[in-house]
Amino acid sequence: MSLEKIYGVHAVEALLRHHPKRVKQVWLAEGRSEPRVQALVELATQNKVAIGQAERREMDVWVEGVHQGVVADVSPSQVWGEAMLDELLDRTEGAPLLLVLDGVTDPHNLGACLRSADAAGALAVIVPKDKSATLTPVVRKVACGAAEVIPLVAVTNLARTLEKLQQRGLWVVGTAGEAEVSIYDQDLTGPTILIMGAEGKGMRRLTREHCDYLVHLPMAGSVSSLNVSVATGVCLFEAQRQRGAQIKAKVKK
């Protein structure tokens, strides 16, 4: 079995906390001994994971990116299939929130979206199998541990998946610059699928046709749009804000 190299303190720590059996060896740059690295060493030791030392220049060859003097050899990344969605929904109480990234190909954007999705309480992130970024060491590094927590589900036919989820009672909300309704005026408290389109191109036509609602992000400045990962964070946290307000209102009653 071939191994992947995952790098960065947060990414490696998240793997040790949530999927320790996947970690085969942790490598530390010579001379690293600050508290957060010591905490990582303790975590690895608790999970009986081997720890080794290497020269920084050697680690620079292993990975492309800022490794922070921490690299781990791990079993291959886990991308879930469509069946995972049914399992997640079956065991979820309350109104689920799902994020769909329709053709987001930049690994930095995918990593940032995974981080925002986890922070906002999304159940999973859904991507099409083709023409989309997938889990890589870069994605894991940018996600700062979120890639080890929130499921990334790759589906063969996104339109068909949306139809199945709609049959389960979820509402599909797509983002489009020309939409008349603002994200802040759209009810996001129910079972919701939020769709963000590809960088520059937006949603594909067939994906758009499966949306129950279209919304836009109001822009007050001179730029016409936001980076997809930034826009995703804004939309997800608006959904979180609405849901939190709804819970508070019920408590007051």
UniProtKB/TrEMBL annotation:
Binding site for S-adenosyl-L-methionine: 197, 217, 226
Cellular compartment(s): Cytoplasm
Root EC class: transferase
The RNA 2-O ribose methyltransferase substrate binding domain, residue ranges: 5-80
Pfam families assigned: SpoU_methylase (PF00588), SpoU_sub_bind (PF08032)
Keyword Cytoplasm attached: yes
EC number: 2.1.1.185
Record's catalysed reaction(s): guanosine(2251) in 23S rRNA + S-adenosyl-L-methionine = 2'-O-methylguanosine(2251) in 23S rRNA + S-adenosyl-L-homocysteine + H(+)
Keywords annotated in UniProt: Cytoplasm, Methyltransferase, rRNA processing, S-adenosyl-L-methionine, Transferase
InterPro entries listed in its UniProt record: 23S_rRNA_MeTrfase_RlmB, Alpha/beta_knot_MTases, Ribosomal_eL30-like_sf, rRNA_MeTrfase_TrmH, SpoU_MeTrfase, SpoU_subst-bd, tRNA_m1G_MTases_N
Family membership: Belongs to the class IV-like SAM-binding methyltransferase superfamily. RNA methyltransferase TrmH family. RlmB subfamily.
Job description of the protein: Specifically methylates the ribose of guanosine 2251 in 23S rRNA.
Protein name: 23S rRNA (guanosine-2'-O-)-methyltransferase RlmB
Biological source species: Pseudomonas sivasensis
